[in-house]
Amino acid sequence: NVTTGGTVGGQPLGVHGVDTVALSTLNAIANGHATYTVVNDGVAYYFASKISAETFSADPAAYLPQFGGFCAFAVSIGAKLDGNPRFADIVEGKLYLFVNADVFAKYQENPKEVLQKAEKMWPGIQHVAVGDL
């Protein structure tokens, strides 16, 4: 789940340019800067500081959102919607994104069930194009 054409290098931009280290560890929105770009698996991620970029580089999987950055609630029902970092939750050290405030509120009614359903659904839709769901 990326923004295409958003970087100087031509890579797609992940997580709307928000620093995923700050989001994953502090549940705080910190806008990243192109100065601190790390490309991981063909996707560019922006960070608010050199320290965040280095932290991410040392262990990207620890800071990447689950389900490829798609909305966890949508994944739980077999869909792929944009994950918005402004609506995020950290559960057992994992970062989950949600599309908007209403969906995030719905998730909060029963987060454990939503995440369990999403984990079961993800392998079947992970490599399916959004338009084909």
Task: Give a verbal description of the structure.
This protein is of the alpha+beta class and 133 residues long. It has helices at residues 20-26, 50-58, 72-76, 101-109, 111-125, and strands at 2-3, 13-14, 33-40, 43-47, 84-91, 94-98. A two-stranded antiparallel ribbon has the order 1-2. The two termini are 15 Å apart. The model has no long low-confidence stretch (mean pLDDT 93).
Characteristic terms for this protein:
5 helices, alpha+beta, two-stranded antiparallel ribbon, two-stranded antiparallel sheet, 6 strands, 133 residues
Topology at a glance:
Blueprint: E1 2-3, E2 13-14, H1 20-26, E3 33-40, E4 43-47, H2 50-58, H3 72-76, E5 84-91, E6 94-98, H4 101-109, H5 111-125
Antiparallel strand pairs: 1-2, 3-4, 5-6
Short description:
With 133 residues, the protein is of the alpha+beta class. It is 34% helix and 23% strand. The chain starts with a strand and ends in an 8-residue tail after the last helix.
- Main sheet specs: 2 strands, antiparallel
Number of contiguous helices = 5
Q: Alpha-carbon distance between the termini?
A: 15 Å
User: If you compute it from the alpha carbons, what radius of gyration comes out, rounded to the nearest whole angstrom?
Assistant: 14 Å
Give the class from helix and strand content and strand pairing. alpha+beta
Low-confidence stretches: none
Shape: globular
